[in-house]
Amino acid sequence: MKWIVAALIVLAAAIVLQMGLLAFGIYALLAVALISRWIVQSSVRQVTVERSISHETADVGDSVRVVLKVQNNSAFPIPWLLIHDVMSTRAVTGTSPAMEVTGRRIVMTMLWPRQTRLFSYQLKCLRRGHFQIGPVLLETGDLFGLFRKFRLADEPEYLLVYPQVIPLFGYDVASRRPIGEVVMTHRLYEDPTRIAGVRDYQPGDPLNRVHWKATARVMSLQCKTYEPSSIAGATLIVDFHRGSYRRQDEPNRSERSVTTAAAIAHLLFEMGEQIGLVSNGRDAAARIRTEGFRVPRVTRKSAKTLSDDEIREARLQPVVAAPDRGPVAIAR
Questions:
Q1: Based on the domain organization, do 19 and 59 belong to the same domain?
Q2: What is the pLDDT of residues 27-57, one digit of tens each?
């Protein structure tokens, strides 16, 4: 607004020096500037944007169509309007982007009064994840370049891309010897319908375990032994610690870990077995809070509000304890 102050100073000087033509020009310039500013501010408030996406969930390799419906509800034309559908930079750029954009997310257009226009683009899902689409950032101004106005036009939407599931053939989940020879010292559950053999009677054995035919044959109490019951289910542990992966291999190696876990989980699901999952990965909703589009901290109040929101994080945070032994480490 420095030029307005300069124009007022020149106007005052023109009045004092009785320069009527210059004063008239300054009057006209101020009138055009004020009218242009009022039209820009009122017009951008009357622009509405509606976004629709073809899918809220997708698989790796699928394409999602995003359609933006932009409408000018004001009685004034908008000479130029910049429309930017914001997405995370890490999702659409870099050496290994998660999304491939076909079409334009940034469009420059002109809108007549009451005019509606449609813009669309395609997102091809290259990697699993939880991604934020939007909000739409609008920018407009007057023809003279004196004023510019920005506005966020809508709320963001979210796209969930499931990890790739690769079928596993010939992989035995219920392996009897997953790591070398395994000696079982305790059997939690036994199958009474499958007899594995007999053994000598031990004090405390119930009578229903006594094998009477074997007892009569060897003339001493013999008890049945049963095969242990087995469950082919598994608990999958996915490690996302930064030190577990080399930086130059990311995000490819961690994504392969997720793909492997998803393949094993799918196999267990097809077998009707139990599945458990443990991971130290960051919550996707918490990641969106920092990686997604955020309102810039232009004032002290907005900065404090955003800082308070970061502090009031209700999700479970990991507890890190130094390696140690003894009762002190157990108390931690």
A1: no
A2: 666 667 777 777 777 788 889 999 999 989 9
- 197 shares its domain with 251: no
Instruction: Tell me, yes or no, whether 330 lies in a domain.
Output: no
One-letter amino acid for residue 76 of the chain: F
pLDDT of 128-143, one tens digit each?
888 888 888 888 887 7
Q: Give burial (CB, 10 Å; 0-12/13-18/19+) of 85.
A: buried
Say whether both 56 and 68 belong to one domain: yes
Whether residue 54 sits in one domain with residue 24: no
Judge whether 256 lies within some domain: yes
Check whether residue 108 and residue 60 sit in a common domain: yes
Range of the domain at 22: 2-35
